[in-house]
Design goal:
The structure is a homotetramer of 213-residue chains.
Chain A lengths: L1 H9 L12 E6 L3 H4 L9 H17 L3 E7 L10 H5 L26 E5 L10 H7 L4 E7 L1 H14 L3 E10 L3 H15 L1 E3 L1 H16 L1
Parallel strand pairs in A: 1-2, 1-4, 2-3, 4-5, 5-6
Helix pairs in contact in A: 3-8, 6-7
């Protein structure tokens, strides 16, 4: 996409946001059904999920606000929406279904936010933005799946709601590589900061060290 | 993207939505600055804008609700947001700037909705969803630019707010072809119906004919 | 409040909205804890709850969309909000607590919407507006408690989201009579239509009769 | 309302919120039409407006974020909403109408936020919450009119969005005294902190002094 990049650069897109003063970690839809290539997963989703484990550990050590999301639709169809027409398989993601449970390696701890949602964005039809605002969060480290779906939508809404979105590039995954790459491009040009997990860990821990000194 | 398409088909994505009972036409950001390759435009944006002219005429004849959007930021910077950090050139799009005026060939008529927005989605930070809801709109024909930015975000939010998004494929454009194609792929698989302008005109006018008979 | 009424009349407040083409029934927070004067109830709350039983039966017969709300906060405090600081007792309203269950006489049936919320309005931080919009609802019959709290907030947001709010005057209740009356006054002047249960039943059933003929 | 107060106290309502770490000043609808008893004003509205002048001066000195709101409807009726059916006189509040201009004694300075809205809350259908969130505001000092309308709705939504609402009791006014008092009661019990202007000025300036030392 080198010529595409040139066009965006010429129009002065793609500037840096950086991490602000108080970051939260957002883990989007790392549930069993997306960790399974035969259901909603595949591609690099499970690898991104694995990569998120050490980041979650660091964020817990640093006492960051941590939020997990799950897609949960009612068993009786009462809250089926337009997306459930487009992608009917989503209707299997009910409260107690195995496929809608957060993967064992990222099980939420008491006090961590767990958001139930029915559309791509973690912020739509939920009070997550209000919860972050009350805590004076200003930046959201976005991990999860899929890059071209719920990750992008959540990062976009984070930006709209006044939070700096930081995409953790090796902790987001998608069932297909084309959309994964294309959406990282869009996110980088227009909505978010892109950083690797280790860049983020390095920055967060070095800030912490300066605070403690 | 044939193998990508196979993955999505296997997981039962990409079902049809169709046009519902009452459609509105949404024209996203066809303003002078996006019609100009030296500012925010280029690629197939101006062509998409040209293609929208006959669709607008038909929708006016059929008395559909019509909504136009503009990006408008305050001259004094009081409402600068995260996106204005990422893409500083947006700050030139002020109320009276030439670049933020809707193009002459699509000038709104009295009674058509004109939405001022500061983020990609026509629905975020605006009352457009409420306006459509009051009118009992259930489907939104989405035209405008850019496909990978405000068109996608507006279509996604339309879906989230309970409206069926119909992307008018030859009336949406982007400054670069890669993101244009990649985002049409995502929209088709997950969020929207994709139809050409002539398919839509044909369906709307044949419905109208049946009603009149 | 006769002189207050005069002021509002002089400024042309308080016009009629009427019921539109497609109404939904919204039952706000009729849960055990609000049916109990020793917890969040008292005043005319339980009477309003009793009065709602026949209305619910009629709305079910007429196949109206029916939505119930519950206040539900996480047991681990992860979604405590500003309101939980103001009114700490709300934190007892957890998913499985007896006090947060909908009263037996209004138990939701499969297919009826059940909204979990953490603030007064049924529409804030939920996707209820989107759900209603998708169903082309244009009017919301509001019952529940308390008049000065969640009923008013839900009616106000219904109006904001483009739905005509109809307060069912004998199916809304409050723990104290002063706020009950004062809020009905505000709702009547500025935001909603006020009708008794029997007026609504009469109008809905006579419309239905005309449709069947 | 002493017995009403007892009921609320018994149920543990009405706890204190206090001013958080970073407050913004919100001035709701102090426009000419509400400063005029023959249009939308009367009662103690103009007095509340007068009282706000010194508070605005202090907040400017302290470099607080300041936001003003105006009700603005399109001249062509394209964005008329349910409230405009209920209160048709609101339709006179167009962009350039004298009645919709902010009063001379509170004219916004460059850099102060000016929000156009069409419903009671300053936060509904606007991006004010996002703007405050980006600035890490955690408390909103609410002044303006009317207490029973746009002030209450804005304070309620501030709370919902994660900001502590502080009602400046002598800087909010209403056309009629009954609703003014009744709504202050509700706000105190359920949603907001109530403080006088001088209490707030004293607290803000003493904090500032401690910071400077």
């Amino acid at each position: 996409m080198s010529s595409d990049t040139d066009i965006y650069k010429h129009q002065n897109f793609g500037n840096h946001l950086g991490i602000g003063e108080k970051a939260a970690l957002l883990i989007v839809d790392f549930v069993n059904g997306f960790d399974d290539p035969d259901q909603f997963g595949g591609g690099n989703v499970s690898e991104a999920c694995d990569n998120t484990v050490p980041l979650l550990a660091v964020c817990r050590d640093l006492n960051l606000t941590i939020a997990h999301t799950r897609v949960v639709l009612a068993e009786d169809g009462s809250d089926d929406n337009i997306m459930a027409i487009k992608v009917p398989a989503l209707k299997t993601l009910t409260e107690h279904a195995e496929c809608s449970q957060i993967v064992d390696r990222l099980t939420p701890r008491p006090g961590e936010i767990v958001v139930r949602k029915r559309v791509p964005s973690a912020f739509f039809g939920t009070d997550l933005a209000a919860n972050f605002t009350m805590r004076r969060i200003d930046s959201v480290l976005v991990t999860g799946c899929t890059t071209s779906g719920c990750v992008r939508a959540s990062a976009l809404d984070a930006m709209c709601w006044g939070f700096r979105p930081i995409i953790v590039t090796d902790c987001v995954g998608d069932r297909a590589v084309g959309p994964h790459e294309a959406n990282l491009f869009d996110l980088k040009q227009k909505y978010a900061e892109l950083m690797t997990r280790d860049e983020i860990i390095s920055e967060l821990t070095s800030r912490q060290a300066r605070t403690v000194e």
